[in-house]
Amino acid sequence: MRYIGNKTKLLPFLGSTMARLGIAPGVAHDAFAGTAAVGRALKSAGWVVHSSDLMTYSYVMQRAYVVASTIDSFDELAKADAPVGGLFVARGLAATQRSVVGAERGIGLDSTEVVARRLSAVADHLANGVAPSEGFFAQNFSPAGGRMYFTDENARRIDAARATLHDWRHRGLLADDTFYVLLAAVIEGADRVANTAGVYAAYIKQWQPNALRALTVVAEPPIRTHARCIAHQADATQVAETLGSIDLLYVDPPYNTRQYAGYYHVPELIARGWFEDEVTLRGKTGLIADKDQRSAWCSRREAPNALRSLLSATGARHVLVSYNSEGVIGDKELRAILADAAIDGRVKRFTRRYKRYRADSDREGRRYKGDEVRELLYYARLRRGGEGPK
Ligand SMILES: C[S@@+](CC[C@H](N)C(=O)[O-])C[C@H]1O[C@@H](n2cnc3c(N)ncnc32)[C@H](O)[C@@H]1O
Q1: Closest Cα to residue 162, out of 191, 130, 118?
Q2: What global pTM score does this model have?
Q3: 3-class SS at 34?
Q4: Mutate to test the pocket of ligand 1, among 295, 299, 314, 354 (most ligand atoms within 8 A of CB)
Q5: What is the distance in A from the centroid of ligand 1 to the CA of 34?
Q6: Cα separation of 366 and 197, whole Å?
Q7: What mean pLDDT do residues 236-242 have?
Q8: 38 lines ligand 1 (CB under 6 A)
Q9: Alpha carbon separation from 116 to 90, 121, 300, 319 (Å, rounded)
Q10: In the Cβ-directed half-sphere of 88, how many Cα atoms lie within 13 Å?
Q11: With a 6 A CB cut-off, is 236 part of the ligand 1 pocket?
């Protein structure tokens, strides 16, 4: 997903830095999970991962990419043959599944491939097999609803996919893991056809080529491990307090004053449960109330103390902090806070240059200093229970 601070491209840098520092797999807390890219990479490298974030869409992605380890056989789903609410054309799904099962038999696939094929057929059914329907997104986030975030057709497809998924879950036709894997795929699919410059703070007044494409839903089979990973929709410090002794705390907080809650309200709404009666949208872009999801890390005044509190709450042995050369906490202050929490008072810093992610333009009250930003990765060995005064 297009996401400010998404670390997918920086994973090799993170991995090689951990190898240089000799940090071996154990229990990690990905405290600001966002798209769950880091938690997912840690899980596939053998870590037991706890992840946290304030946003519901992040919780959905954490469940899909970090927690989920297995996927349904979809037998229950294929057996259900009564259309529900006019949205779920089960016979169509059963036909899709029959052809997938037929192909599986024909080419002798192993169980991982079978699961991947079935998952992909069900995801595709959500995008193309279910009749588009008029719902919350068509009424509020398409031209018919006065906001050009999605074409009318794509908004109706998002409504139908979402309604179908909730219906399947409500009827016990999907296990929780599968529900989240498919819901994450709908959120990511919607993002690919969103008529924005990358964030949802504004829609673009002309249709962009990506927005004119039809919605696709592409589900990722989960990483299979026996490790019990856990997702949290909660404040990083509150979660850190509950985890006790762990090996690694990975900190990737917001760097600037832009609140994620205001920049990603549309995926947030797709991720939430049924809410049509309760949600009030405001303004041109349909913002939602976000009092509980505003972050202290976006405030120059509050961010340094937020970092101090997190470091004193965690029981981690190692901390890695991703930060950006233009962040609200300056390099000197960040080093001083980390040094204070370090067992030996030492802080290491690793850097990587990368091209700036331009989510909004210079015209919208921002003047960027250049196209290149330095991604900073700070490391400190922390004191933890029994190893020295906290
Ligand atoms: C830079 S992004 C993280 C990006 C993530 N590493 C990725 O690869 O997608 C920062 C995240 O911190 C979350 N956040 C902000 N304040 C938080 C808090 N107090 N506790 C937990 N998460 C918070 C935001 O919702 C956002 O998803």
Answers
A1: 130
A2: 0.90
A3: coil
A4: 295
A5: 5
A6: 15
A7: 98
A8: yes
A9: 20, 9, 45, 35
A10: 23
A11: yes
Q: How confident is the model at residue 84 (pLDDT cuts 50, 70, 90)?
A: very low
Residue 289 has pLDDT above 50, yes or no: yes
Residues in the chain: 390
Which ranges of the chain would DSSP assign to H, the alpha helix?
A: 11-21, 37-44, 56-62, 75-79, 90-107, 111-124, 136-140, 152-170, 176-192, 209-212, 236-243, 260-263, 265-271, 303-313, 331-341
Nearest to 90 by CA among 119, 58, 131: 131
Residue with tokens 């009827």: 171
CA of 249 from ligand 1 middle (Å) equals 13
The CB of 53 under 6 Å from ligand 1? The reply is yes
Ligand 1: nearest atom to the Cα of 306? 19
Q: Is 314 in the pocket of ligand 1 (CB under 6 A)?
A: no
Which pLDDT tens digit goes with each residue over 341-356? Answer: 999 999 999 998 876 6
CA angle 129, 134, 137 (to 5 degrees): 100
| Closest to 120 in 3D by CA, of 21, 219, 232, 37 | 219
Residues whose CB falls within 8 Å of the CB of residue 198, separated by 6 or more in sequence, listed in order: 2, 4, 357, 358, 359, 360
Q: Which band of pLDDT confidence, cut at 50, 70 and 90, is reported for residue 90? A: very low
- Cα of 62 from ligand 1 centre, angstroms: 12
pLDDT value of position 375: 85
Q: What is the mean pLDDT of residues 258-274?
A: 92
Residue range 217-227, pLDDT digits in tens: 999 999 998 88
Q: How many Cβ atoms sit within 10 Å of the Cβ of residue 72? A: 21
| Mean pLDDT score of the chain | 88
CA-wise closest residue to 121 among 160, 93, 89: 93
Share of the chain above pLDDT 70, in %: 85
Distance 324 CA to ligand 1 centre (A): 14
Take residue 167 and report the two structure tokens written for it: 């219906």
Which of 177-181, 297-301, 358-362, 382-386 is least confident? 358-362
